[in-house]
Amino acid sequence: MKKEIGRFERMYPNPAVLVSCSDGIRDNIITIAWAGTVCSNPPMISVSIRPSRYSHELIIASKEFVINIPESKLIAACEHCGTISGRECDKFKENKLSRQTGSFLKTPMIKECPISIECSVKKIINLGSHDMFIGEVLAVHADESIIYSDGDIDYEKIDMLSHLMGYYFKNKIIK
Amino acid sequence: MKKEIGRFERMYPNPAVLVSCSDGIRDNIITIAWAGTVCSNPPMISVSIRPSRYSHELIIASKEFVINIPESKLIAACEHCGTISGRECDKFKENKLSRQTGSFLKTPMIKECPISIECSVKKIINLGSHDMFIGEVLAVHADESIIYSDGDIDYEKIDMLSHLMGYYFKNKIIK
Questions:
Q1: B126: distance to nearest CA of chain A, Å?
Q2: Is there a contact between B38 and A34 (Cβ–Cβ < 8 Å)?
Q3: A166 in reach of chain B (CB within 8 A)
Q4: How confident is the model over B37-96, as pLDDT tens digits?
Q5: Average pLDDT, consecutive stretches of 10 residues, N- to C-terminus, chain A (175 residues)
Q6: CB burial of residue A122 (10 Å; 0-12, 13-18, 19+)
Q7: What CATH code is assigned to A17-170?
Q8: Quick check: B128 and A162 CB within 8 A?
Q9: Contact A2/B38, CB-based, under 8 Å?
Q10: Which ipTM score applies to this complex?
């Protein structure tokens, strides 16, 4: 039997991605769960961010962001980058993360994440508490250690995360 | 060292949800990976669907859909509902799934999924290969067997799935 429960966001899974951003001078990292693929051609990813957030200000200025996909060893960084404001600290330094230059954007990628996706903002849609930034994928970067010779990713080699209502989940291929 | 690879949708995790839809006369189920939470207040979920799909036609007509979250035992139904067109068959019948009436919509929920989320379409955005339907959550229904007395969900009790590039993943709480 089903029962009606609280009218919250109960979608599952949500990602837990580290989004890096920059206005060309300052940069920041924000942990995002409200994100997902929204189109295949062109490939597009959306991230939703509250207007009060420092990262919102940086992305509005530059119209770009990088999705960095963390492994489970970066959970502490995910928690830190999701709770502390980048107005008050350098999140790369505080979390011992390294900046890495991508192919197209001024925004740095995070070296410690096995996959980084450079995105250029095409639309910004105000939905209420959050603005949704729709970014077109310009380039995907993956660690050489996790890719096959044809350039495809070996997902058995990544210890990926998902997130829901404060919980982190490990993910294992079953089929 | 990172290497630039194919410019595909490499966001992870993607959900694998069974979206039910109806125009008031006919109904259908489509498996969707391009979906995610996009706003907290009001709670909103997006699903992206190719205009050629039967479900696209039904959702355009009714402006409503239901997100049904499957457990891993429904992988065969996820594969069937993601590859066969509902123009040719009754996917409820073919996958031995049962219709269940929700609180607000004409669209049936899927009884065999532990969580069903009724959504009313607020925006439709053409992005290229896919149209994004942004739905406001009207009600969340969960099996009594997976909820605590306060109505919150016990995620340890659900054998949830995620999806990427043709692979299905099991999810286990780690923190």
A1: 9
A2: yes
A3: no
A4: 999 999 999 999 999 999 999 999 999 999 999 998 999 999 999 999 999 899 999 999
A5: 85 89 97 96 97 98 97 92 93 97 98 97 98 97 89 82 77 72
A6: middle
A7: 2.30.110.10
A8: no
A9: no
A10: 0.93
Q: Is A164 on the interface with B (CB under 8 A)?
A: yes
- What are the structure tokens assigned to B135, written together? 């739905």
Instruction: Find residues 48-77 of chain B whose CB sits inside 8 Å of chain A.
Output: 48, 67, 69, 72, 75
CB contact, 8 Å: A173 with chain B? yes
Q: Are A29 and A18 in contact (CB under 8 A)?
A: yes
What SS3 class is residue A94?
A: helix
Range among A161-165, B96-100, B144-148 with highest mean pLDDT value: B96-100
Assess whether pLDDT exceeds 90 at residue B141.
yes
CB pairs under 8 A between A and B: 270
The whole-number pLDDT of residue B108 equals 98
**pTM of the predicted model, to two decimals?**
0.94
Alpha helices in chain B (DSSP H): 54-62, 75-83, 91-94
Interface contact B162, partner A, CB < 8 A: yes
- Asked which of A58-62, A126-130, B139-143, B165-169 is least confident by mean pLDDT, the reply is B165-169
Q: Are A17 and A48 in contact (CB under 8 A)?
A: no
* Interchain CB distance below 8 Å, B41 and A129: yes
Domain boundaries of chain A, sorted by first residue: 17-170
B175, B34, B87, B81: CA torsion to nearest 10: -30
